[in-house]
Amino acid sequence: GENVEQHPSTLSVQEGDSAVIKCTYSDSASNYFPWYKQELGKGPQLIIDIRSNVGEKKDQRIAVTLNKTAKHFSLHITETQPEDSAVYFCAASRRDATNKLIFGTGTLLAVQP
Amino acid sequence: EAGVVQSPRYKIIEKKQPVAFWCNPISGHNTLYWYLQNLGQGPELLIRYENEEAVDDSQLPKDRFSAERLKGVDSTLKIQPAELGDSAVYLCASSVDRASGELFFGEGSRLTVL
Q: How many angstroms separate the CA atoms of B21 and B90, rounded?
């Protein structure tokens, strides 16, 4: 079945450094790739998404890149701040009748002040 | 605008007891989802509703789990009887419609089965 692998499972960076989280998906028909941030005791919240007709998307300090050929997509956070500390989930889905999101296993990002 | 509201936030029960979770989606959102999140894992879809119709319940363990969405608004998820392995966070989410990419999640209901 569909699968999304996410690495690393934990990531610790110094404030101001960059963080990169990588995901690989198995379903070649996937065409929608969102990233969610989950803070402790909260539900996941969408921070950025990308569709398969775009290779890169940027929103202030966060960016997502997509390599459809390799079935890879990545989240890049620049100038990290302590409030970026959270668990980040990648996901993939087909934008068809099912529109079923398959989530990765999450990355715990810790930004050290 | 109010977000997705779930209750209870926490529930502790003994195995074989029943439990129910309630979700109120964002007003106007036609699509409602129930996800299961085990510790250290990503959310896994249990069931999706389009208005009052369950259109994807393939991952719902129907022997003990049931769900309903009366009048296409609020939804309840029930487990009867609960097992130790059901301990997890149950997340409710809603979206404007199936085609809308963004899911809005509630804060979840954390279940502990003793």
A: 8
Q: Does A97 reach chain B within 8 Å, measured CB to CB?
A: yes
Q: Which of B4, B56, B107 sits opposite A98 (nearest CB)?
A: B56
Per-residue pLDDT 10s for chain B (114 aa) are 689 999 999 999 999 999 999 999 999 999 999 999 999 999 999 999 999 999 888 889 989 999 999 888 999 999 999 999 999 999 999 998 777 778 999 999 999 999
User: Which of A43, A95, A105 shows the shortest C-beta gap to B91?
Assistant: A43
CB under 8 Å to B94, separation ≥6 — which residues?
B4, B25, B26, B29, B31, B32, B33, B103, B104
Q: What are the respective helix, strand and coil percentages of chain A, to the nearest 5?
A: 5, 55, 40
